[in-house]
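Let us begin with a simple case.
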Amino acid sequence: MEQLCIAGKTYGSRLLVGTGKYKDFDETRAAIDASGAEIVTLAIRRVNIGQDPSQPNLLNAIPPSKFTLLPNTAGCYSADDAVRTLRLARELLDGHKLVKLEVLGDPNTLFPNVIETLKAAETLVKDGFDVMVYTSDDPIIAKQLEEIGCCAIMPLASLIGSGMGILNPWNLRLIIEQSKVPVLVDAGVGTASDAAIAMELGCDGVLMNTAIAHAKNPVLMASAMKKAVEAGRDAFLAGRMPRKLYSADPSSPMSGLIGK
């Protein structure tokens, strides 16, 4: 089976999941197990991975021995803040290099600040990090981030936590077609069909959190997302039939019928 390759490491699952917004760590772990995800992202500024010894440690529920951790900079609004946060994560995780960079523009939309994102990406890549970067669906910015040296480009489908699905498939296609590194949809997925569409467009993977954590049954939704990502990838590889406007084509040929 073709595998996802990020920063020189291969993964069987193309679904990446977050660890926030669950009712407790037990539910977090159950949903992650159901998703089949191997890469699990965590917000360094919002969860305890050793910063506070008096509080429950997420790493007890999500051990680095079983999962590839992807520390992220959720809640950062400047390049300096994001760089500082990921350097802290590297210390807490014994030199861990794979990170997710996101620099937000404002607290209402959580839309990425691409100017600060570019600045932070350049610093982090020079500092030896393997940077997976959350960005807008602007193909020009995506190309610049790839040229800086980011190991994966992660354009939004729609606003973080909105569940609105893929609002601009055309820009995603442009980014996918020009990129030489993996492209993963990050933000905006609401249900399984959104994940399948992302994969059918040719994305290399999908990252999500709220769509699973805020479902009525997070564990069941995690399972649905796993299947959707797999089905969407298979459909992309299979190649869909061409669309034929105003032209029917019966499944059973009309020529050569018995009795004719």
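The second case is a distinct protein. As before, the sequence precedes its structure tokens.
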Amino acid sequence: MPFDADELENGARAATGLDDFGSPYYREGLERIVDALNTEADLNDIGRVIQHATISNALIQRLKVEETYRQHPEIDDEVIGGPVFVIGLPRTGTTALSQLVAADPQFRSLRTWESQAPTPPPEAATQHTDPRIAAAEAGLKMLDDMFPLMKTMHNSEATAATECQDLMGMSFRTFHFDGAVRAPGYLAWLMDCDMRETYTFHRRVLRLLQWHCPPTLWHLKTPVHMFALDALVEAYPNAKFLWSHRDPAKVMGSVCSLIQYVRSWSSDRDDPRELGAEQLDSWVEAVRRAMDFRTRMGDERFADVSFADLQTDPVRTLQDSYERLGLSFTDAASDAVRQWAEGHKPGSRGAHDYDLAEYGLTSEGVRERFADYLAAYDATA
């Protein structure tokens, strides 16, 4: 049976007893990804289950967010501090950089367990014992058991900072859908769609999360923010950015390998050369847009972080980045960041092996496509 947007919505209504999805903005993205799942993704049986669960949860959480605001409209008065966003090409150390910032007690981060289920709003007194933590841990364990190679590619923990994909997914406008399944039609639409309401809904969820659970100075992360920084800053006028840099020739093979593995959960289709061309085009465009945004907005919002520096001296690297952005790097921050770094040494989760040539790419060809980026920033590591 094909996926159907109306049936998915009705299932979410039945699961919650709720009916208000808020602004109809989300619906076009839902219809686009449903069409891609039906016509482009070549889903296997497991993939149908995974994608049905992913879309259903996004709809369920959207309903619950809107219901929470209906009951507590005062949440809309919450003021978001910052935020500081970690951006950069995937596989450039964005996860490690994000976790280092999350260790700093002055920041509020989006944690995996609350990203997956933001309602009811978390409470400061129970944030470390909330039953959603155990549920998230069980889900991650099941994922590790089913797809064990993932542990060598990407680290996910229930209580650790995570990417913004769930929040953006509630508007059905996120590149993470393309990361999970082959969806070229959806990707082409996503490249040029209006992302402004995606970020206002993103902000809506952050307000809910901080309402009873401070601090209110936020740190957030995902490489896909680079595609729509103007829309992001419209929602967050005081946003600042930590931009991680690494040689794209060392990045793209890792990016493709990760996506190839994740897509293999949902589909038996395997065309690495198609994947290589798609991902290269997408991330060249992401960097082009981010560089254009930076040129227009000025360097004051940005601190550049070298992957090599992050690997060899993470504490000093973060301190320098804070100084660049006008942030305070306290003794408490230094101690917490150092402790996290000592417990998460590079390579401690095993080796992630990949071959750039498998994806029809060469180091020289990749660097040529990123020539403007390489000329502008230190990405030689």
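Residues 247 and 379 are 5 Å apart (CA to CA). The longest helix spans residues 45-71.
Keep these points in mind for the review questions at the end of the chapter.
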